[in-house]
Design a protein that fits this description.
Blueprint lengths: L1 H16 L12 E10 L9 E5 L2 E4 L2 E4 L7 E2 L6 E2 L4 E5 L6 E9 L2 E9 L10 E10 L4 E8 L7 H6 L6 H7 L4 E6 L7 E8 L2 E6 L2 E7 L10 E8 L2 E13 L1
Antiparallel strand pairs: 1-17, 2-7, 3-4, 4-17, 5-6, 7-16, 8-13, 8-17, 9-10, 9-16, 10-11, 11-12, 13-14, 14-15
């Protein structure tokens, strides 16, 4: 009995320490404005597309991404390292607040995401501002949505450097509290699903197949100008189609 009580005390302590997920607004946080960009990948590529980690191609009327940099490898001259990285395709549509709508399919991918960056901002690594990820854990057969404030979180210059120091692990963890949130989601590998990402002021709200599945309010999201949208795929493989980007304002 003593052993059981001890386990219950420990479990309760972990539950108390676990971060509480923010409530997801049932209604949209964004009022859609001007349609800034649309692509159904059936015609000539728009000049605003930018090749980043370019293992993407248009196939069967959709944008198909496949991660090929799956592990760190030495450069040809042996003097550097090519880091593992998701496949990334960029879109130059400078804006602040927006609604991104698209269809996605995870066909072997462990993650697809919509990321917003500002390449002119030097206060964080590579200008990463925020992102919303749709994830699939094939081993556990579970899906999730993760929203991340990168500007004031893990990509902020000082925090990014600190992550390389194991002695600062606890300090980094404290600084990252509230900068991301992960929610369970009904991800359906091999099937097309509709994804909506609303970015307004310091908030992101994610809707999957018409159901609100994620929300985060964090200061970095409110960055004044996002110069680029980036669409990422980790694993084999993921697709985007019927992409629309709208300007937006708070409701």
């Amino acid at each position: 009995m003593k052993s059981l009580l001890s386990l219950l005390v420990v479990a309760s302590a972990f539950a108390a320490d676990a971060p509480k997920l923010p409530s997801i607004p049932a209604e949209s946080i964004a009022k859609k404005g001007e349609l800034l960009f649309a692509d159904d990948f059936s015609g000539k590529p728009d000049k605003r597309w930018v090749r980043v980690v370019d293992t993407f191609k248009v196939a069967d009327g959709a944008l198909l991404g496949t991660q090929t940099r799956v592990k760190d490898e030495p450069t040809k001259d042996g003097k550097g390292v090519i880091k593992a990285h998701a496949a990334v395709y960029g879109l130059e549509v400078p804006n602040k607040d927006s609604v991104v709508e698209c269809r996605i399919k995870l066909d072997g991918a462990s993650m697809v995401d919509v990321e917003l960056d500002d390449r002119n901002y030097t206060g964080c690594h590579y200008g990463h501002i925020c992102r919303a990820q749709v994830r699939w854990d094939a081993k556990a057969k579970k899906g999730s949505v993760q929203i991340i404030d990168e500007k004031d979180g893990g990509m902020r210059n000082d925090i990014y450097q600190m992550k390389n120091d194991p002695a600062k692990k606890a300090e980094v963890a404290k600084l990252l509290v509230g900068r991301s949130a992960t929610f369970p989601a009904d991800v359906k590998p091999g099937e097309w699903q509709t994804l909506v990402v609303e970015i307004v002021d310091d908030q992101i709200r994610v809707v999957l197949d018409g159901k609100p599945v994620g929300y985060l309010k964090s200061s970095g999201i409110a960055h004044a100008t996002k110069t680029r949208y980036e669409f990422g795929v980790a694993g084999q493989s993921g697709q985007f189609d019927d992409l629309k980007v709208y300007a937006a304002s708070a409701k």
